[in-house]
Amino acid sequence: MKPLFTILFLLIVQIFSAQEEDYDYANGVFHFEENKTQKIFTDWARIRQSPNVNAQILDSLKTNQSILILKKDETILKLGERRANWYKISYQKGDEISEGYVWGGNLAVSYRNKNGYDFLFGLTKTINKKDKQYPEINIQQNIAAIKVVEGSTLVDEVSFETGSGESLSYGTFNIESNHKLQNVELTLKATVSGEACGIASYDQYVLFKDKKLIALPQLMNVGDADVYYHSEEFIFPNDKGGIPNAFIFKMEEMEKDDKDREKKKKASKTYLWNGSSYKLK
């Protein structure tokens, strides 16, 4: 009977959480400052006359279009687990400057430019997935993507999971070195994380070579004060302990028992890189 009670409990928590979240704040990754330039992430994002999905459509903008945030509207639209404010924006097309409202979920969480390419990180949708431990329960899973754009042309795109809405308190996106991996031009790293204990953060490394994006296995980190933690990281060739033409996955977790004794577990595995793809050693 215990598993049944556990499932019922999780279902009840899920229902009440869903009810509470309808009145919750917007996901922090979609907070954009006024008078700052941002980028359109979704293709053909609709620009409306007012902050409402039923408002007149004034225009639609392609991925990588630069826009200026004029003002954040207090109206929040929820699509799946993505909650974002509407923003009044201005943008230029040709010689004309126009204004309108765009939903914050259609904007890039962050973007970078390097070697003539624009790299954009954003969230695309929410899907339902069965919980691995309790298949009877569906959980909502956010899907993110990294896009590389040259001018106005989409060169490549790669998608990956980013956990639930709780893990979207903030996000970062950086361009790192090639980590001395053969033929790799750049390494991109996208991160989303929650603010509370027990909320997982996710690191997604993506390699860029020959105008192609290659996603590495995703890393997850979570912990609760000094009670337990689970950490994952990659050791690249240019890191201490790294080896040529490979990257090493390392995991460590700790949990304290009822007598406050630490129980630790470690694991590692090596992925070989041949200059164009990787495989587990």
UniProtKB/TrEMBL annotation:
**Superkingdom per UniProt:** Bacteria
> What spans are recorded as compositionally biased (Polar residues)?
271-281
User: Which keywords does UniProt give here?
Assistant: Signal
Ranges for region Disordered:
255-281
Q: What is this protein called?
A: SH3b domain-containing protein
This protein's record includes keyword NAD: no
Q: Which residues form a coiled coil?
A: none
Q: Which residues form the signal peptide?
A: 1-18
- Has the keyword Signal been applied to this entry? yes
- The residue ranges of the SH3b domain are 33-111
